[in-house]
From TrEMBL:
Domain EAL: 23-277
Entire-sequence positions represented here: 616 to 894 of 896
Name of this protein: cyclic-guanylate-specific phosphodiesterase
Signal peptide region: none
Length: 279
């Protein structure tokens, strides 16, 4: 940096400018993306670790930008949250997810639960619960087939109003999961207080199995504790056979990860399930 004569402040300012510039790009383009069909929902299979059968899907947003190509959610979700665009986008994702579950049922693949991610910002929408109820109704999907992946911070730091919305979603019959379990300040005792059905162990605990003894201890303890609380456990980010073997040995219920499948488009998903109806 010294070589081209810049000091720390200049470098810092340039980095900030680049970031501001990128944000502006996303902001200006994301609105159009939603109306111009540039957004697409990909689906990643979740498998029962006992039988290997497909039990559900996680809906993951992708942005297919005409010039920039595929943009992953980490690069635009935060801007969508700041601008509030996540609210209409989230409703669109929910509808797509319901349709895919219906489509798989119509193809004779049975009941496949589809999970969508909800960020805390979506709970600032007073119409969140009403719109989800309307989507389920219009798409005629049994509510238990829609799962909501919620963050620890939403449940722990949410306002009374947020907690009420979560309770109403639960009362509609939706399945509620706590996503990225272990990355926040989740004290295990908190789990009892929330109306959740599922916890998803974050990939950061899975990725160093079987090398990291601590991660293995934590993971097996979390599974045992969740089962005592009658919660189902999903492990995310399974990439190796050794990780799978460990999780099966400790009776983890469901797994998701590149070892099985990457997130794929609904078209690819249907093709894939046609070829291997029950793996
Ligand atoms: P997440 O909810 O924790 O989703 C899991 C992420 O891990 C996904 O990244 C998925 O593609 C990735 N993944 C799955 N299996 C593996 C694996 O075996 N190895 C590795 N290295 N990664 C794996 P993705 O699709 O880039 O999504 C990132 C985040 O963006 C999600 O994290 C979620 O927080 C957010 N997101 C995605 N779609 C939506 C959406 O529709 N609404 C909202 N509010 N957030 C979304
Ligand atoms: Ca998730
Ligand atoms: Ca997750
Ligand atoms: Ca995660």
């Amino acid at each position: 940096a010294k070589a081209n004569g810049k000091n720390q402040v200049q470098i810092f300012t340039e980095a900030l400018n680049a970031e501001a510039h990128y944000k502006l790009f996303v902001e200006n383009n994301l609105r159009r993306a939603l109306t111009q069909n540039e957004l697409e929902v990909y689906y990643q299979p979740k498998l029962c670790l006992k039988t290997g059968q497909l039990t559900g899907l996680e809906a993951l947003l992708r942005w297919l930008h005409p010039e920039k190509g595929m943009i992953n959610p980490d690069q635009f979700i935060s801007v969508a949250e700041e601008t509030g665009l996540i609210i209409p986008i989230g409703k669109w994702v929910a509808r797509q997810a319901c349709r895919v579950s219906q489509e798989l049922a119509a193809l004779g693949m049975g009941e496949v639960q589809v999970a969508i991610n909800l960020s805390p910002k979506q709970f600032t929408d007073p119409d969140l619960v009403g719109s989800i109820a309307a989507i389920l109704d219009e798409e005629q999907l049994p509510p238990h087939l829609l799962e909501l992946e919620l963050t620890e911070s939403l449940l722990l730091e949410g306002t009374d109003d947020t907690r009420q919305q979560v309770a109403r979603l639960k009362a509609l019959g939706l399945t509620l999961a706590m996503d990225d379990f272990g990355t926040g300040y989740s004290s295990l005792s908190y789990l009892k207080k929330f109306p959740i059905d599922v916890i998803k162990i974050d990939r950061s605990f899975i990725k160093d199995i079987p090398e990291n003894q601590d991660d293995m201890e934590i993971t097996s303890a979390v599974i045992a504790m969740a089962h005592n609380l009658k919660l189902k456990v999903v492990a995310e980010g399974i990439e190796t056979a050794a990780q799978l073997a460990f999780l099966r040995r400790h009776k983890c219920d469901v797994g998701q990860g590149y070892l099985f499948d990457r997130p794929i488009s609904s078209r690819e998903l249907i093709e894939r399930l046609r070829r291997y109806p029950c793996r």
